[in-house]
Amino acid sequence: MIAILHADREWGIGKKNDLMFSLPKDMKFFRETTTGKVVCMGYNTLLSFPNSKPLKNRTNIVLCEDGISVDGCICVHSIDELLTEAKKYPKDDFFIIGGASVYRAMLPYCDKVMLTKVDAVGGAEVFFPNLDEHPDFELVSATEWEEDNGYKISFTTYKNIRLK
Is the pTM of this model over 0.85? Predict the structure, then answer.
């Protein structure tokens, strides 16, 4: 299982149920990495997509309240149900894509985190744990800083050294 996201200097990941930055290179990386795979998200993340529609060319799993169903998605209603569903897929094909509460709940089960760092502060309302200070994660790779729509970004990968 892999978490994939971008975060600002303060580990902020979103505001007003949306991304803080428009990053074409990061979006291209996300598309290329997750197309043909499984993406797992919370219901609010699904609602943040254009027309609240699932992502094309992916299996979409949504963690939502009982009684909610979404066309084109597999709906699960608890973390236990999500973990059971995850076992049906290769772990390297299963991506956690948000929001903050889903990241927080699933982080101990993620083998790695693919994080695009943004060298800016985006005024976030929700945050991701600081993996540079997290005892369960270590940085295993990082690209040189590059420009993306006026922002400096670096593609990084963190490994979970105490996987549940």
Answer: yes
